[in-house]
Amino acid sequence: MNQYVDSEVGKLNTVLLHRPGPELARLTPRNNDSLLFDGIPWVGRAQEEHDAFAEALRNHGVEVLHLGQLLVETIAQPRARAELTGATLADPRLGDTLRDEVAEHLENLDAGALRDVLMAGLAWEELRAAGSGRGLVYRLMDRHDFVIDPLPNLLFTRDSSAWIRGHVAVTSLAMPARRRETSITRAIYQHHPRFVGAKLLYEPRLEPLEGGDVLLLAPGVIAVGVGERTTPAGAERLARRAFSRELAHTVLVVPIAQERATMHLDTVCTMVDIDAVVMYPPLADTMIAFPVRQGADGEPEVGKPQPFVNAAAEAMGIGRLRIIDTGLDPVTAEREQWDDGNNTLALAPRLCVAYERNVETNAQLERAGIEVIRIAGSELGSGRGGPRCMSCPISRDPLPAARSA
Ligand SMILES: NC(=[NH2+])NCCC[C@H](N)C(=O)O
Predict the structure, then answer these.
(1) Ligand 1, from 17, 23, 40, 156: best to mutate by most atoms within 8 Å of Cβ?
(2) Which residues does the entry assign to the active site, renumbered to this chain (predicted)?
């Protein structure tokens, strides 16, 4: 199957990554907070780290698709090109005069150059150098401002789309700095020849929902974190749609603290085996889940909240969900959680990719019988995302179905 994902751990066949590029070079101490980076990455080293990540995946038989490459091929379709520039020009901050100038500027770009602008944005000075830049809005901009904002978080392909079986949820990103990302994923899935006929399960105009919050615990069982990014309304909408298309029988809605350290469910919990997760210890005992199932009237029906580990085991039809801790002592656990120790990408049951810096967590995984492929991430990690955040699985081998609840 070309596009099919029903778990977090079935053998990974195809994945979508984004090799970071000029959009990272836009980050400065003035804008890094609003662009959701905790530091200023060294771009060349981040690219090397990312290349090594992609290479590790390919060495394990995974087909790696690159967002930039798919985007350039998508732009070749006139309708896609019009949609993508339309989404960029829709920014109300531009105003009519500047919008017309930017539109003309974009029209004159070839596919590669337009791709670069869509990803890295357009700086005030670049428009001036290109011979345009008039009108009130442009005149009152600071020379450091962007006419089109860059998208440095494209690196985290997990968040802007998520595949559930053969359907793709193009998500609805919560933070203003990331919203335009989904015009890119949407255009790719709708117009790139590789994805002809892809069924859209979710769309950017809907209630906030981010892929980092969506965990496919087992075929038919989806956990959705609600917190800083995904809203309860987003989880409810996803549940309703997944039920009506028979993609799931249970959605476990998991409240997580609305903080940067726990911005997505996958920052505190990822799966490493069909019945095991690596989890931040303070949450293992306290995290709860609201089980949502399809009621007789077809509407989502919310059950009693239960400890997450119990609710998960029950929905997955297993006796117990095994928990592997991040770090051994509370300080190490907290440090390694921050550095994405919990954010592993499974390539198959008991085989995962993790940042090498999380020494204790990786040792814990190995003690539990999980093979760990270590990658460097000192620069990549400055955007607060690990191997899972940086990857959107498009094809995994199916797992045997869980007992229907
Ligand atoms: N799935 C994830 N945990 N993604 C991490 C995204 C990090 C990114 N800087 C953001 O704040 O949005």
Answers:
(1) 156
(2) 389
Q: Judge whether 29 and 156 are in contact, CB under 8 Å.
A: no
Q: Is 156 in the pocket of ligand 1 (CB under 6 A)?
A: yes
- What separation in Å is there between the alpha carbon of 384 and the centre of ligand 1? 6
Q: Is the CB of 166 under 6 A from ligand 1?
A: no
Q: Give the Å distance between the CA of 373 and the centre of ligand 1.
A: 21
pLDDT, one tens digit per residue, over 177-233 is 999 999 999 999 999 999 999 999 999 999 999 999 999 999 999 999 999 999 999
Against a cut of 0.90, is the pTM above it? yes
336-367 pLDDT, tens digit per residue, is: 888 888 899 999 999 999 999 999 999 999 99
Question: Is ligand 1 within 6 A of the CB of residue 385?
Answer: yes
The CA distance from 212 to 268, in Å, is 11
Q: Note if 389 is an active site residue.
A: yes
Q: Cβ(357)–Cβ(279) under 8 Å?
A: no
Considering the four listed CATH numbers 1.25.10, 1.10.3930, 3.30.450, 1.10.10, the one that applies to the domain covering 69-148 is 1.10.3930
CA distance 301 to 322: 27
ipTM of predicted assembly, 2 dp: 0.98
SS3 letters for 122-133? EEHHHHHHCCCC
CATH number of 12-67+152-396: 3.75.10.10
